[in-house]
Amino acid sequence: MSETHWKLLNILCSENETAYALIVLNQPLVDCASGIFNTLWDKASFKAATDGATNHLFDMGSPVGRLRPDIITGDFDSVRKDVLEWYKQQGVEIVCTPDQDNTDFTKCLKIVLEKFQKKKLDCIIAFGAFGGRLDHMFANIDTLYRANQWAPNTPVYLMDNHNISCLLQKGCHHLDVGSSHEGDSCGLIPVSEPCDCVTTTGLKWNLYKGRLKFGELISTSNTWSGENLVTVETDKPLLWTMNIKHSLTE
Length: 250
Ligand SMILES: Cc1ncc(C[n+]2csc(CCOP(=O)(O)OP(=O)(O)O)c2C)c(N)n1
Ligand SMILES: O=c1ccn([C@@H]2O[C@H](COP(=O)(O)O)[C@@H](O)[C@H]2O)c(=O)[nH]1
Prior knowledge:
- Helix 4 packs parallel to helix 5 (134-150).
- The N and C termini lie far apart (40 Å).
- With 250 residues, the chain is an alpha/beta fold.
- It has a ten-stranded mixed β-sheet, with helices on both faces.
- The chain contains six helices and 15 strands.
- The chain is globular.
- It folds into two domains: 17-161, Thiamin pyrophosphokinase, catalytic domain (Rossmann fold, 3-Layer(aba) Sandwich), CATH 3.40.50; 165-244, Thiamin pyrophosphokinase, thiamin-binding domain (Jelly Rolls), CATH 2.60.120.320.
- Strand 7 (156-159) and strand 8 form a beta hairpin.
- Thiamine diphosphate binds at residues 51, 75, 77, 100-104.
- Belongs to the thiamine pyrophosphokinase family.
- This is Thiamine pyrophosphokinase.
- Pathway: Cofactor biosynthesis; thiamine diphosphate biosynthesis; thiamine diphosphate from thiamine: step 1/1.
- It catalyses: thiamine + UTP = thiamine diphosphate + UMP + H(+); thiamine + ATP = thiamine diphosphate + AMP + H(+).
- One of its GO terms (molecular function) is kinase activity.
């Protein structure tokens, strides 16, 4: 049985030295000027902006303090021409990904993984993954399935100001929930297929060899039992999601 450890919000702790790449998705960053986004941005080993996300980075800072990613990728139907040109002049790597069968996020993730094939990267965080368009939210979750095929040993987290999610593959998972940044609720969602055998510890509503299936039971509005670790054993891919404490997001 495979064992996977997930650091989750521990990545945000000041003493934490996780090497991660940050992929910024096209969602407003106005509410993120302080708190989580800034922390993630400052500590990232590598920063990528997908298409329209570049507008948000551009609009956030003054020309002097403007946030500068390492790479900008996308089909470029959302980024403003002047914004792309400004970053080009600043020497930022620009990669056009015109394929219309995959999202800009999926394509960007692949580029980031290729860049880090030989360098150390503990995980990848995609910020701005929820809110806005529902089709995009499903596509962002779908990208987690692809990420597992491309780089099964590199955890990928979807985040926004309020949530962090990751895809648990078949096996046993140890989820660190003792960072003090955790909010009150969490969930286990069998997105792609029913999970017939799920066992958990560390939750208020645990399962023992239980079945999770849309139309039958999915685990939402769950919460902690008070321990710093949650364990999940699952026979099929299962989306873990939890919310982030308000004080961090204000
Ligand atoms: C069956 C099928 N449905 C839909 C599409 C269309 N499609 C899927 S991914 C993609 C690119 C999306 O680009 P992105 O910039 O991520 O999103 P946008 O904001 O432009 O919608 C497109 C057009 C397709 N290629 N195949
Ligand atoms: O509502 C949304 C819009 C976008 N995204 C993500 O951002 C990238 C880039 O978006 P563009 O609209 O092409 O600039 C897209 O691939 C999505 O992953 C989103 O999550 N929600």
